[in-house]
Amino acid sequence: MIEREQVLHVAKLARLRLSEAEVEKMAGELSGILEHVDRIGELDLDDVPPTAHVVDLENVLRPDEPRPSWPREAVLGQAPDPAEGAFRVPSPQAEA
Amino acid sequence: MSELLELTVAEAAAKIASGEISRDEYFDAWRGAAAGDELNGYLWRAEENGAGGEGALAGIPVAVKDLFCTEGVQTTAGSRILEEHRPLYTATAVRRLGEVGAGLLGKTNMDEFAMGSSNENSAYGPVRNPWDRERVPGGSSGGSAAVVAAGLAPCAIGTDTGGSIRQPASLCGIVGLKPTYGAISRYGMIAFASSLDQCGPLTRDVTDAALLLDAMQGRDPCDSTSVGIEGGVEAPSRQDLSGLRFAVPAELAHDAIEPGVRAVFEATLKRIEELGGEIAEAPLPHAEHGISAYYVIAPAEASSNLARYDGVRYGMRVEGEGDVIEMYESTRAAGFGDEVKRRIMLGTYALSSGYYDAYYGRAQKVRTKIAEDFAAAFDSFDFVVTPTSPSVAFGLGEKTADPLAMYMNDFFTVPMSLAGIPAISIPAGLAEPEGGGPQLPVGFQIAAPAFAEQRLLDAAYALEQAIGFDARPGEGGDG
């Protein structure tokens, strides 16, 4: 069972702000899903290696040749608040 | 419907190549059809014919899931957070289609960030199933499946992470192919779960699926996991299935499959035998744990991939009076829908300190067991077959209140994704939904060993010819 406090903790880790109603709903839904997922806890998996990736690849290398990057203006043109050739964000020191 | 719209992609490409029909005439016919979309299948439609090059798909317009970056053309991933997003570059899969002469017909609706099995998670409204507009087209490539099924596009591409090509293809009565992980570059495909995401075609028939796959597959320096299919794939021509062995998972009998779906599945097995194929049960004991493993691994990867949507470099920003952290939280709260938030929460939880081993670590081990089950089956069989989906298309709103019930739609498609192997869904017949109503399409799934796409397409083609599925959506499919 996922408690309200855990939902708030995980939401903070994920940088998600949840409304009071969302917190309650999320606690119930996550509990239900995890209850199903918990069935894999019954399997004997002690000596099983984990699979992170299905394609068996060694390091994929390419020649280290310089090539042009995206123009700064084009990239900044996508930003919500570009300023002075950079991405502007609210100050980390602002009073929340 | 114009005769041009009746042609398959292969037929149209041949007529364009011989000069029998002109590119502009063909594009205009499809642009007209797409303009009549009443299913909310398209999020954007091309005004001009972009199909200029020469090659196997010269003059063929393609509907592209809005998860693929298209330079200068809106790419929303079905999310509010990317509402105005116009990428600086085009995804490799789309670029490759262009290199053999295909053009962009439109961008198709989808579940937000490809998370969903009904297309009801789109920020731009649900897509309707052309067979019954009160039902879902499946998801997450619901728009791509619906526009092909309804005759609003000659072909489409989508992405499949746990069934997102095969399940909507099944529910809409068309062909959907998830290639081997690594067959097609993921570059420019907005990431959901990077170890599972794979691009593939949604088409009217198996031959067209082979054509699109061949155009898109290949190694790409921009995606180090792309290896391509050696030798490419050719148009399938096999007429029988003699000498081929098909495995039915032994555990299948215990699973909840709608009676109508089961009847079509069993009739298709008989058809395989009539074509000379051999059918036997094979144990896939861990496949039933696929949903559990998938709904840990995919959300875990998603929670990491979606960290980039923070209102700094592109997309939406919501700013309050507070600091940068508050800006991140406000942006993500406003920009993401319920299912995306749920998966980010689930994935973050599964990766968080104290839970990592119990969830993510164990899920990765289950993934190994599932891949081993398939490998063992392929020691004595050529293919594994299942229904694509446990049910025909269900009603809009029917499963939105119960996330777990929605996830169970992926029961038969998730194991192949976890194992990274190719699987195709072909329409096998029609069945009445549980609770009654007009008949709806049923998909038949065939899975093969990694990079055995040619064998898979050949067998699917032989079966397709024998089944002769020619039903079309009724009154819902006008357009």
Structural summary, described in words:
The complex is a heterodimer of chains A (96) and B (479). Chain A has 96 residues and is mainly alpha-helical. In chain A, 34% of the residues lie in helices and 4% in strands. Chain A has a domain at 1-43: Glu-tRNAGln amidotransferase C subunit, N-terminal domain (Histone, subunit A). A two-stranded antiparallel ribbon of chain A has the order 1-2. In chain A, helix 1 crosses helix 2. The model of chain A has no long low-confidence stretch (mean pLDDT 91). Chain B is α/β, with parallel strands linked by helices and 479 residues long. Chain B has two domains: 3-244 and 384-477, Amidase signature (AS) domain (Amidase signature (AS) enzymes), CATH 3.90.1300.10; 288-363, no CATH class. Chain B has helices at 9-17, 23-35, 92-99, 142-149, 166-172, 206-216, 259-274, 290-305, 324-335, 338-351, 357-380, 403-407, 414-419, 453-467; strands spanning 42-45, 61-65, 103-108, 155-160, 175-178, 198-203, 245-249, 278-282, 383-387, 423-431, 440-447. Chain B has an eleven-stranded mixed sheet, sandwiched between helices. Chain B starts with 8 loop residues before the first helix and ends in a 12-residue tail after the last helix. The model of chain B is unreliable at 475-479 (pLDDT under 50). The chains are: A mainly alpha (96), B alpha/beta (479).
Question: How many structural domains does the protein architecture of chain B include?
Answer: 2
| Fraction in helix of chain A | 25-40%
Strand order of the largest sheet of chain A: 1-2
Most extensive interface, residues per chain? A-B, 53 and 68 residues
Number of strands of chain B: 11
Distance between the termini of chain B: 8 Å
CATH architecture of the largest domain in chain B: Alpha-Beta Complex
* Percentage beta strand of chain A: under 5%
Query: If helices are DSSP runs of H or I spanning 4 or more residues, what is the number of helices of chain A?
Result: 3
For the termini of chain A, the CA-CA separation is 32 Å
What is the CATH superfamily classification of the largest domain in chain B? Amidase signature (AS) domain
Say how many strands of chain A there are. Answer: 2
Unreliable spans of chain A are: none
Derived from helix and strand composition plus strand pairing, the structural class of chain A reads mainly alpha
Q: Structural class, from secondary structure content of chain B? A: alpha/beta
CATH topology of the domain at 1-43 in chain A: Histone, subunit A
- What's the CATH class label of the domain at 1-43 in chain A? Mainly Alpha
**Strands in their spatial order, largest beta sheet of chain B:** 1-3-2-4-6-5-10-11-9-7-8
